[in-house]
Write a structure and sequence with these properties.
The complex is a heterodimer of chains A (161) and B (218). Chain A has 161 residues and is of the alpha+beta class. Chain A has five helices and seven strands; from the N terminus they run αααβββββαββα. Chain B is of the alpha+beta class and 218 residues long. Chain B is 39% helix and 13% strand. In chain B, strands 3-2-5 form a three-stranded antiparallel β-sheet, with no helix packed on it. Chain B has a two-stranded antiparallel ribbon with strand order 1-4. Chain B has a two-stranded antiparallel ribbon with strand order 6-7. The two termini of chain B are 40 Å apart. Classes of the chains: A alpha+beta (161), B alpha+beta (218).
Chain lengths: 161, 218
């Protein structure tokens, strides 16, 4: 069974591995302690103390705070209950004109605003761009992912929370 | 000779629901047709001719050819009658972006420029990277100081131009209740509502629409 040192996994998270290193990690069987090691590295990276239960998204984590599971940004902003859509706490920009869309794409290579719009979801504290949606105008905000944390820990990791 | 073009991928819409983790959706495509060209003369003179359309705003086809050039941005187009020396070009895009573009490494952005994947204008607008082209060395030079300032300004602009969720909700809901959606989008919602009670409930609940609300014009 493969096993990787902390430094290698840190470089994996930061996207610093070259292809030959990365290819081996992808091709090998998954090391059994990878999740714990990754959590340890991520916990060291953030400036707050709440325990990370699950990395949810770039910059976002599900953490345990006073017995509650909440979504928290690495900047410290708390989005609240992980079962609610964190995007509803974001600041949102809608690109729904040709001018706004053509800032990002060359001529004829962006969507037409009558068909689709681009929504940008920013962390209200650090303003990092957390997510984009390309949807028809009027589409409800998409709930990306609701993990079953209890099942993941009990049946996959065989650990208690 | 008749050639039957059809859309192998996006036309006026992205064919995904976004990029990943803050990345933007990949570009859409278009079909370029150059008719009544001077290719016969170009070939005879061994002159350069367009082999790509890296920057449609400043196209090689326009620069290198005398021709009637049409870019069709719809996904599907009707069959086009082509003659000898006419040219066609299909623009295909890559995959969607991953992560906040203004966190992208400068080395990766420089590589994209040197590989002619992006224009300097797109690199500035999307990645917040300011560059100059060194003609002698034939390479792009990144202005790190100007890039830092550009990225700071983009963050400021994000704050100024964005809305709270409540403001967004009112803004988007108005498009629905005031019938400001295009016919095809209205039809899509209307038919989805008709076909699926589950979808109807999601849609009506999210926008807090009355039970008897109907999409107009369909």
């Amino acid at each position: 069974m493969a096993s990787y040192d902390k430094k290698t996994l840190e470089r994996l998270i930061d996207g610093d591995l070259n292809w030959s290193e990365l290819r081996n990690i992808i091709a090998e069987s998954k090391d059994l302690d990878r999740f714990e090691k990754i959590l340890g590295i991520l916990q060291e990276k953030v400036d707050w103390n709440e325990k990370i239960l699950l990395p949810l998204h770039e910059h976002l984590y599900i953490v345990l705070k006073h017995g509650e599971r909440i979504v928290k940004c690495d900047c410290g902003y708390e989005f609240g209950d992980y079962k609610k859509n964190w995007k509803l706490k974001c600041r949102i920009n809608v690109r729904d004109t040709e001018h706004e869309i053509n800032e990002l794409y060359p001529k004829d290579m962006g969507c037409h605003p009558l068909w689709m719009e681009i929504r940008e979801f920013f962390c209200p504290n650090c303003l990092v761009l957390l997510e984009t949606e390309s949807v028809p105008p009027g589409y409800p905000v998409i709930f990306n992912f609701l993990p079953d944390i209890d099942t993941f820990y009990k049946k996959w990791l065989k650990k208690s929370l | 000779m008749f050639i039957n073009f059809f859309g192998a991928r996006d036309g006026l819409a992205f064919h995904g629901s976004g990029g990943m983790h803050g990345g933007y959706p990949h570009a859409t495509g278009y079909r370029l047709i150059a008719k009544n060209t001077n290719m016969e003369e170009i070939i005879r003179n061994q002159d350069p001719y367009p082999i790509a359309d890296a920057d449609p705003n400043n196209g090689d086809f326009e620069k290198l050819l005398v021709a009637d050039i049409i870019r069709k941005s719809h996904c599907s187009i009707y069959p086009v009658n082509l003659k000898n020396y006419d040219l066609v070009h299909f623009a295909l895009s890559g995959g969607p972006g991953y992560g906040d573009p203004i966190e992208r490494s400068l080395a990766a952005v420089k590589q994209d420029l040197d590989d002619e994947i992006y224009t300097s204008e797109i690199v500035e607008n999307v990645y917040g990277v300011k560059v100059k082209y060194n003609e002698a060395k034939k390479e792009w030079i990144i202005d790190k100081e100007a890039t830092s300032e550009c990225r700071r300004n983009m963050i400021k602009r994000r704050e100024e131009e964005s809305m709270t969720f409540d403001e967004f909700w009112e803004y988007e809901r108005t498009k629905i209740i005031e019938n400001n959606l295009s016919e095809h989008v209205t039809r899509m919602y209307s038919e989805s509502i008709e076909h699926s009670t589950k979808w109807k409930n999601i849609f009506y609940e999210f926008w807090k629409l009355d039970e008897d609300f109907k999409m107009e014009g369909i």
